[in-house]
Amino acid sequence: MPRVPPTNPATSAGTDVWQRWMPRFNLGFTAMLAIITVLAVLDPRLSTGERFVVAGLGLILGLWHWTMIVVPSPFTLGSRRVLLYLAGATGAFVALTDIHPVYMFLVFFLNLQLFMLLPLALSITLAGPLTFVVWWRSVTASGEPFAVSLGGILIMLAAWLGAAVMALFIERIITQSDQRRRLIDELAATRDELAVAERQAGIVDERQRLAREIHDTLAQGFASIVLHLEAAEAALPPGATTALHHLDQARRTSRESLAEARRLVWALRPPSLEHSSLEQALARLATRWTEENGVLARLVVTESALDLHPEIEVTLLRAAQEGLANVRKHADATSVTLTLTTMADLVTLDLQDDGIGFAPATMAPPEAGGGGYGLASLRQRVERLGGTLVIESAAGVGTTIAVALPTLTGSLIAEHAIVGVGR
């Protein structure tokens, strides 16, 4: 296939260079052919018949070039068409140089076309015969076709080898430029993907922040109001019917507002948990992480999770995400195992890798510039829910992050939030 880059100006700056230079090359070839043909026709040493032959062959070569190269864009030529064109152009070149030596100047354009339209090895191979034709025509033009000297042969070989070396050099430059272009395209795509991921992560973090704020302020506040209203009801003297009525109305409104706050907290869960269980979300996370990083991550579930409270599920999912992010950045691991275990009053998530490991005592705190903001924030979140986060590691043996949380189900959370409601 031709080595000329495909036409796609939207993807490469290098393609634009080819598009700018190809029309110039075609015009240059046509102009050179026209000038040489005029010089040959005006040469008084040629007979009238030779002049007609030169003019006809020159016109045919020009039309052949425009028909085979210019009209069908050279960026889309197939190898058969290229070989057919080069065969015809070479035949015309040999015939024209046999009539007049001035046509030997066309060898520069023909060599360029060889290197532009053919694979490198084939173009170097075919450049040899073209160089030989020019050399032989120069020898015969001297009037002594059999006076072939060693110096002349060396000059011919040097010219051919010089063209081959230059072609190899240009080929390396083109290859390197193409690799850089692809790298730039990959970096641009990665940057766009990173921007989308950061934007999505920001949205998810904001949703979780709102959920925590609603849970810690509105929900807790309404639960406290319900408790105080029930205490006030118990302290009322007998017969306070009107006061009991208003207290009942206030308690009902508080319960409804508390339920609405809980619905908001539930609605602000991460998208991966909106329509699936924690196990399914963790399985998708492991699969996607494996595809993106080329490192096997597998999920092991020792016991099906209970109907966990959304805050517990979100925290476990965040723990898995943060742990996998640290494996990608620091571990240099070949495999990662996530183990989800549910017990009567405890749910645990262990993330274990087989990477290079580290000494936990040497990990600088976030404020010391050692990173770890994600783990520090995760630890605070786990401890706020009454759980623990433990990191076990040693150099050369991998790292294990263990998160343990109480199995507070939705019903238990309700009982803890509004003690005595509905009695």
How would you sum up this structure, described in words?
The chain contains 12 helices and 5 strands. The chain is elongated, with a radius of gyration of 40 Å. Helix 3 (79-99) runs parallel beside helix 5 (120-141), helix 5 packs antiparallel against helix 6 and helix 9 (278-293) runs parallel beside helix 10 (310-331). It has helices at residues 13-41, 48-70, 79-99, 107-117, 120-141, 150-235, 241-267, 271-274, 278-293, 310-331, 373-384, 410-417, and strands spanning 296-301, 335-342, 346-353, 388-393, 399-406. The N and C termini lie far apart (84 Å). It is 66% helix and 9% strand. The protein has a 5-stranded mixed β-sheet. Among the domains are: 13-148, no CATH class; 276-412, Heat Shock Protein 90 (2-Layer Sandwich). The chain is of the alpha+beta class and 423 residues long. Residues 5-14, 366-373 and 409-423 have low confidence and may be disordered.
